[in-house]
Amino acid sequence: MAEGTRVLLVDDDPGLLKALEAMLRDAGYEVFTARDGQAGLAAALTHKPHVAVIDVIMRRPDEGFVLSRALRAEPVLEQMKILVLTAAPDRYGMAFEPDAKWLPVDGVLEKPITAEALVEEMERVLQTPAG
Fold it and tell me: For the chain, what is the HEC assignment?
């Protein structure tokens, strides 16, 4: 399913962003990147990715949450899937749960992440019907 699938990566760690981009390009995805939530929203509106992969905690501790909600509020992005990356799934006193009302995402990946796990989770969410 990779061919023709557009992916937006949003992470403030340039090394991780470059590694994830290489993983996905090697798997055949078209990849766009952004280093913060504001740039991520702009890139999503420009490129209309099929999937956004967002780091939960960037420069601001809630930046990934804010971006996820902003993306969900955009009608032109309603079919886009959202995966979040986190090194601390229990940081807020509860495990992240996909589809949680406070975090409207389709999947959660714990760092460190392998190329295999990233691609597997992306394919899973891409095959999940919207809504």
Answer: CCCCCEEEEECCCHHHHHHHHHHHHHCCCEEEEECCHHHHHHHHHHHCCCEEEEECCCCCCCHHHHHHHHHHCCHHHCCCEEEEEECCCCCCCCCCCCCECCECCCEEEECCCCHHHHHHHHHHHHCCCCC
User: Domain coordinates of the chain in residue numbers?
Assistant: 6-126
Chain segment 47-66, per-residue pLDDT in tens:
999 999 999 888 887 788 88
Q: Read off the pTM.
A: 0.88
Superfamily of 6-126 according to CATH: Response regulator (3.40.50.2300)
